[in-house]
Amino acid sequence: MSVDTTAAPTRRSSSVGQSVRRVEDGRLLQGQGVFSDDVYMRRQGFVHFVRSPYAHARIVSVDVSRAERMDGVYATLTGEEVQELCEPFPQIAPEPGGRLRDYPLAVGKARFVGDPVAAVLAETRELARDAAEAVEVVYEPLPAVVDALAAVAEGAPVLHEEIGANVGYQDTYEWGDVGWALEHADHVVEIDRLHFHRFSSTPLECNAAVVDWDRGTGVVEVRSNNQMPQFAAMFIAPTIGIPVSKMHFISQDIGGAFGLKVTSYPAIAACMLLSRKAGRPAKWTEYRSEHVAASGHGNERTFTDIRVPVMSDGTILGFDAKAHDDCGAFMRYEPLGGVIWAQVAPGCYKLKHLRLEYTAVLTNKCPVAPNRGYSRLQHLWMIERVVDLVAHELGFDPVELRKRNYPQADEYPYETPNGCIYDSGDLPRMLDLALDLADYAGWRERQAATAGSGRRIGIGIGSTLDSGTNNFGQARLINKDLPFSGNGEAAIVKLDLHGEIAVNLGSSPQGQGHETTAAQTVADVLGVDPVEIQVKPGYDTASHAYVAFSGTYASQFAVTGLGAAQGAAERLAAEIRLVAATVLGVEQDEIELEGGFARVRGDLERAIPFQGIANYVYANVAALPPEVADRVSLTCRYVYRPPFEIPDVDSKRGELTLTYAAQIHLAVVAIDEATGRTEILEYVAIDDCGRRINPQIVEGQVHGAAAHGIGAALHEAFVYDQASGQLLSGNFYDYHAATALDVPLMLTGEIESPSPRTPNGAKGMGEGGGAPLGTLCAALQDALGPGGATVTDTHNPSERVWRLLHRSDEASRAVRVASRS
Amino acid sequence: MSEPETTHLVRTTINDEPYERVVQARQLLVHFIRDTLALKGTHIGCDTGNCGACTVLYDGQPIKSCMMLAVQADGASIETVESLSQPGGELDELQRAFNDQHAVQCGWCTPGMLMQAKALLERDGDPDVETIRRTLKGNLCRCTGYVNIVRAIQDAAGQPVTAGTRPEDRA
Fold first, then answer.
1. Domain containing B138: what range?
2. Closest residue to B81, CB basis, from A31, A733, A748
3. Does the structure show a pLDDT above 60 at A4?
4. A769 within 8 A of A664, measured Cβ to Cβ
5. Cβ-Cβ contacts under 8 Å for A809 (sequence gap 6 or more)
6. Other CB atoms closer than 10 Å to residue A12's CB: what's the count?
7. Does residue B138 share a domain with residue B114?
């Protein structure tokens, strides 16, 4: 055998900042991806859940005997069994919400339509479904409550007797002195109610898992599309009584997640119990109707009693408001939403005096999950409505009012009243760019020209922030006993036997192109072309490094994931330089890495290819001095740690998140007065996410986030019948996920304000802050004109727009202004 | 009591390969393709014929394979995403355009999008942008906002790609 120790990877120029084509596309375009439902295991059975048809009901009895007698049924599982086999899942909430008992299946009561009350494992998908039909459940229906404000009213049905009421968490967040501001303001704008509706990003691939509990080793393999496996493991371990080290999570390709696949752990736990019981792998693939009814919804939030102090020059001093979050039937990731909004407490504006009374409420609806823009987009939308309504009511120009209240470019880093640091940015410049791209002046002229034609034009602006890289210390603001703080992400970069460069990430991607951007990052550190870097697709807890908060969520990968990859690559580069310097007899700082060689700077003749370096360390180690051989492994693990401190629990102040990407959107809509139908004539999205690692991938994320917001603003909603608690939009037809005709071919633009806080100048991005929600509401408000009804809801389908157009009485106006004489 | 016939013999051509299988009467065509034949490129995103992830060509026409039974494939010729190019080999022109225009994020809708786009371009080699958007109405994508998918189809048709909504940007 001969080993060619002279071949080296090809040269490259700097690839970070280039729109390198995605390397993962090849397999996805050829139908060769490996998603959870593509995984087959020998002897596997199929899981089907029996789900409650009632929003709230006592489970009188569950009879699985008919199902168990069916030929090919391997096992069944009931709530009663689960209660014996499991502890309840841990809860994040303090008392009283922390007393809530949540199990892999419903125990004692069903609390929402779709709540799983039993499960079946059978030979085929069809048989599992048939057998689930044969499970006889006797329910005693109970009164249901599907409105957050009704659920906290006296006499409301109580979901969880162990809590005794429907409040899962409540606290008041106050910074500055809003009482003083309301007293001294020239105007106080009062808004009775703003409602952020229920929707979700509904990834096109539903939840899925293939779970194999090996009776010999006690190791359970989970081939799933759960997007945060360590979090799932931390919840499942104490519940089932299995060590984290015996749970082996693997995923390759995930068909979108958007935060919603964080909370699939109860179903995975049920599959584990079925697999252990039957001694077979249990394969579960959620149906769309199950996903829509019973996986995870975005947080619905109702703001009431909003009071906004404003000075006569247009300076907005702050706000005082109440917020009720409708968490659905269980708290799962909640009440983290109760603090995560505080990352963007004053929104995009220099508000100084803030007070929010926050309540997390349990209702008979699908539990919520941390959906794209989680908890910040609700809050940012409220603030955008406030700013927009202040402009309308007090007669300010909507552009000038925003610019006056934005932090100016020279004010960064900008500290918010609650101690968050807006790292960099220039919102006025972004707004100017949006106005220019959209031809704002031209549209104002066209708007005036259409007056009285039966078709109204409205122009709206939305400004949002996409805060990225959480400081998990903020969890202490809701529960001071939680031992969480900071954040982190791990990666391994390795020089393999023949000098190949291999990367294992700590995060499970869901379409963001990690294989490409990680290759770009590592390539630049090691001086090779990105095609030379092999980033392992997907994620595997057995071979990848991770920390508890590893994952692709909260707009963090560009900072945490790439920060870890960069750090690990730098460690590997240092080892390569050490070996090369030793062999070539020079100082380490004389070695440079270029084109796959470690070479002496300025001397092309003295160089060792990476394969030669690998050969020394793996196969020729006696040729190295022992003190060098002992220091190199060529397998370098690095944990990126953002520079966070623990927030102060008493003042609720601290740096809650690291980076602030920003969005300014502008929409021009036309409304048909006869039908209320809204057509988007122009849509512009300006983004600032600091240094862009791959501009084409960034633009793709901007498009996708905008589409979710546009879909939600005009079409998508989870609607429940108030009396019965039935979900009325139970499939994609009724839910109306946005189609190609609903999403305009938007224009994008960008500025780059590099973050001074991150290893690469990038800011996490992708969630997009829900910018279209504020933008389209502002456009509708603009079309309604002076004296028109108030846009108070995020969801504005044709029917609601028609009502807004045709009701301009006092009741339709939710805003009042009190001015000092 | 005698049971009704629950299985049937199906002879069909998939990606130019002849197949002969006994299938359950109630098996969906998409499950036949994915589970029985292990051609896992065709995906399922809903149960209501709404999302188009399961789009394949049935005698040249795009159909949603979750809305047909496997037995209906008897005598038909079906093309799935696996027919476009050799797995692991070079991408075909349409696939290359999807890669160049970043029309793929998670990849779940992609096989259906490709088959729908192939059918469109076979019907109309020079579709205008509104035709492209209308054609994609039955294929949901939750990642891309469709913008880059429209651009990819324009690119595959040899057209300049559209930048946005302004009249002068419309192809």
1. 93-164
2. A31
3. no
4. no
5. none
6. 20
7. yes
